[in-house]
Specification:
This protein has 482 residues and is α/β, with parallel strands linked by helices. The chain has 15 helices and 15 strands. The strands form three sheets. The protein has a nine-stranded parallel sheet. The chain has a four-stranded mixed sheet with strand order 7-9-11-10. A two-stranded antiparallel ribbon has the order 14-15. α14 links the parallel β12 (370-374) and β13. The protein is globular. The structure holds 6-O-phosphono-beta-D-glucopyranose (BG6).
Length: 482
């Protein structure tokens, strides 16, 4: 296969893969760790069991050896807040010791750590004390945790992300502890995004003071919105989706301004979301070093008249195509499927070109370097005779990486790419029935089995891509990785 853009990637390109603490570590109550909102949530969920997940806490040395064999240049992981501050306030040294060991072993293997400070798992104690991110009190508690991370790990870690997907967590309140009784969901959403924006700004400022050499940025999930048709109402609906879901939070975090269309939409409904000028100025005084974004799929938006019924989006729990519930936000947009794109079993549409569009849109608007911090295909993998022939994943990743490279050729600075996920982890919405990793973990939702690790076909493929500094993307035949 030949391709117009075959020039090598920059020598310092961060070829990476990612995980998050509550999805991979297990050991949910070991060595003083406190209960997180994820631990609390999983007790009423058939598959969401954080007690063991992929047992990375006990097997991290074996896992880092696999990262080394894969050739990873960088590993993105999150710090479990509840290992460091089990109740949000009291320091727990054994939790710090765990991450010291993980970081040291990564560095011994020439793997650059990228730390996510918050990936959906704050202490349940803070949720019970003051409803977590709904309260301004969260800012100081998050700052204390971040300061401990900077002081403990900042001598060896140069790259940090603040809050993972602050835009998506407000869309799915149950992901982070839910909306307190008696509070309107829209009121909750804007309060949480305000508190997160202030926390993000103060943490970045603190990082600059303590670690002037480090780079730090926020993270969002971006599903590029396409109009369902070229009818102007649908084009407007797609613009609404982009502005509400992605540009409102990013404008705030990167430009220190509130998107006027969003402000006016809520003003018309009697909700004044304008921030006090001093808060806006404080948020705007901090410019991140990069924008991290997670990309899995694109979206379709169509006109949604004011009189329509509101519908919150809902995941497809069974993995049968057609089971996804599309959102409908009257006066803004309604979601729909895209007839031009294939999809996985959970209805996530597969759109490599959308990644290029996302890179172009984000860079054009914010003029900040980008990091793609999650991208991957959720699938049911089959272990047969010790092998996993995940050619569908190779196909997905290869096409996305080519489109990312094209965006780079078009002038977008992309600092790194982190596939989701390094190894199989507990999927946030679908447990172990849906896997993403390069490394298979031998367990099922309700059966821990051996927890042994197996390298998938995609492992060898990515190894070759990294080793060739990306040029194998344009030459490899998938069949050779079977
Ligand atoms: C991202 C999250 O939004 O999506 C990850 O940051 C998550 O935590 C990933 O695992 C994939 O989603 P899911 O629901 O398939 O696990």
């Amino acid at each position: 296969m030949s391709h117009p853009v075959q020039a090598a990637f920059p020598a310092d390109f961060l070829w990476g893969a990612a995980t998050a603490a509550y999805q991979v570590e297990g050991a949910f109550d070991r060595d003083g760790k406190g209960v997180s909102v994820q631990d609390a949530k999983n007790h009423c969920n058939a598959f969401h069991d954080t007690s063991v997940t992929s047992d990375h806490y006990h097997r991290f040395r074996e896992d880092v050896a696999l990262m080394k064999e894969l050739g990873l240049k960088s590993y993105r992981f999150s710090i479990a807040w509840t290992r460091i501050y089990p109740d949000g306030v009291t320091l727990n040294q054994p939790g710090i010791a765990f991450y010291h060991q993980l970081i040291d072993v990564l560095l011994e293997n020439d793997i650059t750590p990228l730390i996510t400070l918050y990936h959906f798992d704050h202490p349940q104690a803070l949720q019970e004390r003051y409803s977590g991110w709904y309260s301004d009190r969260m800012i100081d508690d998050f700052l204390r945790f971040a300061e401990t991370c900077f002081r403990s790990f900042g001598d060896r870690v140069r790259h940090f992300m603040t809050i993972c997907e602050s835009n998506n967590v407000v869309l799915y309140p149950d992901l982070i502890g839910g909306v307190p009784q008696g509070v309107e969901v829209e009121t909750w959403r804007f309060q949480v995004s305000r508190v997160m924006a202030l926390a993000n700004a103060r943490v970045i400022k603190l990082c600059r003071q303590l670690l002037p050499q480090a780079s730090i940025g926020p993270c969002i999930g971006y599903a590029v919105a396409y109009p369902a048709t070229c009818a102007p109402e649908d084009v407007l609906a797609a613009l609404n989706e982009d502005e509400f879901r992605t540009f409102y939070p990013l404008d705030l975090l990167c430009l220190g301004r509130q998107n006027p269309a969003v402000v006016s939409f809520f003003a018309r409904r009697g909700l004044d979301i304008r921030l006090p000028p001093d808060e806006l100025a404080e948020i705007g005084s901090v410019k991140p070093d990069f924008i991290a974004f997670n990309y899995y799929q694109s979206d379709v938006a169509k006109h949604c008249p004011e009189e329509s019924r509101q519908q919150q989006p809902d995941f497809n729990p069974d993995g049968q195509q057609g089971g996804f519930t599309y959102p409908a936000f009257p006066g803004l947009y309604a979601g729909d499927s895209n007839p031009y794109l294939p999809r996985n079993d959970w209805d996530w549409e597969i759109d490599p070109v959308g990644l290029r569009i996302a890179c172009r849109r984000l860079y054009d608007r914010y003029q900040l370097p980008l990091m793609i911090t999650e991208n991957g295909l959720g699938a049911r993998d089959t272990l047969a005779d010790g092998e996993i022939a995940d050619l569908y994943r190779i196909d997905y990743l290869q096409k996305h990486l080519v489109q990312m490279r094209l965006a780079m050729a078009e002038g977008v600075p992309v600092l790194g790419y982190y596939a989701w996920s390094f190894m199989d982890v507990m999927s946030t919405s679908n447990g172990y029935g849906k896997r993403y990793g390069f490394v298979y973990v031998d367990r099922e939702d309700k059966d821990l089995k051996t927890l042994k690790r197996f390298k998938k076909a995609s492992f060898y493929w990515y190894q070759n891509v990294i080793e060739s500094q990306g040029s194998a993307l344009f030459t490899t035949e998938q069949e050779s990785f079977r």
